[in-house]
């Protein structure tokens, strides 16, 4: 997605060869017009898939997932990282390990909102080692829902998340694929000729 | 906002005389079409205010804030509840006490995205005791930004948040005002004749 690549080039900050900071438009400040275009693009790529629910994880997945839900005309569920007062019982849960933070957190989705009748699109802001997405897939499987695929805003293609998912024969659509962050520079994988 | 009141009546669950659970469309599962209408309504109520930034707090504030930002054509910032790897320095911070969870958390906003040139609309999902909103206002003040007002999706009018804000001469626009949750029933304050 050229619009997204341009935004990353202009406003992304390479903190190290592993870390791309996009707090300017995705992870802290959000650009609503860009999110709208991202939502449209996900809807275009997963049209005619019979999707009934979009599943993401708080907090940075919510904006792209919400806009995809707007255009696919489906509800959006965000997995909780910890349970809150009004969300206690009847949960599907999974463990998610973060290599960057070196901690494991439980994520949870209410059994009320994900069932065996659902066909699910999982959306997240970043794909790196794939741990968050694997946790979400685990929950989709527990619920007996069918998985349509994974929609990612920014993929760090030099980490092994995509490989793990492809080995499971899961479709992954990443709107920007970052090949390298070496020497403070963002290099993208060549984009397929699809969408915007 | 009649559409929102109807949704609360149909899908909200009264857990106690204090707690209204709206996990079906706002706090866990999200209804994107409803969020779009909510965003439009906030934009309508705060039009011609010269707003340059919308400030909310993760996670449930993000969806209504994002849609308001789409229609007001402004960026949206979500305050972080804890700092992450890529968000460490140059922060405005405030303490927010949660009476329901009986804990105090620090919230943080990057100094890069909120400055004295900004005019800010603060948006949140719920207004109860007003502690989260007061924390966000504190950050707006530290940044030297001007505050246009507060946009709330659901106000629990029987708690003292609105009173605290009105004593500070701050404009509060709540799209649904809940007068009481007694006896398992949602009773609304009469809605002003504005918007949808």
Automatic annotation (TrEMBL), chains A, B:
The keyword Cytoplasm applies. Coiled coil: none annotated. Gene3D superfamilies: 3.40.50.2020. It comes from the Bacteria. It catalyses: XMP + diphosphate = xanthine + 5-phospho-alpha-D-ribose 1-diphosphate. Pathway: Purine metabolism; XMP biosynthesis via salvage pathway; XMP from xanthine: step 1/1. Its main location: cytoplasm. Xanthine binds at residues 20, 27, 156. Its EC number is 2.4.2.22. It is found in: Cytoplasm. HAMAP family: XPRTase (MF_01184). Belongs to the purine/pyrimidine phosphoribosyltransferase family. Xpt subfamily. This is Xanthine phosphoribosyltransferase. It comes from Heyndrickxia acidicola.
């Amino acid at each position: 997605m050229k619009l997204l690549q341009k935004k990353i080039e202009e406003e992304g900050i390479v903190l190290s060869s592993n870390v791309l900071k996009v707090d300017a438009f995705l992870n802290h400040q959000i650009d609503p017009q860009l999110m709208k275009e991202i939502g449209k693009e996900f809807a275009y790529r997963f049209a005619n898939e019979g999707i009934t629910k979009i599943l993401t994880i708080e907090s940075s997945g919510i904006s792209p997932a919400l806009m995809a839900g707007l255009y696919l005309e489906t509800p959006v569920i965000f997995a909780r990282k910890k349970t809150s007062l009004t969300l206690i019982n009847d949960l599907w849960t999974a463990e998610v390990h973060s290599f960057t933070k070196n901690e494991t957190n439980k994520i949870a989705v209410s059994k009320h909102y994900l069932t065996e009748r659902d066909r699910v699109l999982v959306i997240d802001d970043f794909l790196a080692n794939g741990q968050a997405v694997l946790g979400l897939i685990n929950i989709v499987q527990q619920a007996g829902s069918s998985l349509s695929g994974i929609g990612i805003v920014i993929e760090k293609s030099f980490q092994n998340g995509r490989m793990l998912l492809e080995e499971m024969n899961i479709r992954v659509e990443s709107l920007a694929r970052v090949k390298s962050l070496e020497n403070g520079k963002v290099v993208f994988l060549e984009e397929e000729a699809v969408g915007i």
